[in-house]
Design goal:
141 residues, alpha+beta, two-stranded antiparallel ribbon, 5 strands, elongated
Amino acid sequence: MLSITSTLSIPEDELTEEFLRSSGPGGQHVNKTATAVRLRFDAANSPSLRAPVRDRLLKLAGARATPHGEILIEVHEFRSQKMNREEARKRLTELLRRAARPPKRRTKTKPTKASKERRIAGKKTRSQTKKTRKAPGRDFE
């Protein structure tokens, strides 16, 4: 069981792990062992997620989400399979935590009287500057 928040947890059977050969330095060790991990979570069909959380999760996942609603997380940072596995689960947990938190509602605000006056004064100053650039004696107003 992958515990996300006090109200949200993902059962192990909803996660699929695949181990791959990692690239990069490491000599013969890299060629012989599958230390990289690809964690797959089917968010679109998960019974553990409520609809608003699922929608936010798929939006937050971005390129990590497939068109079918699966989230793929690949980690090949460490030389140890165990550490890569833990890092992949940590990344998924963090993504789910961010999706579980509802966004703050925007409170509408109005501009203050002083800010309106400053805006108008700035426009008048700019207008005056442009008027002084005109060629003398050529008033088209």
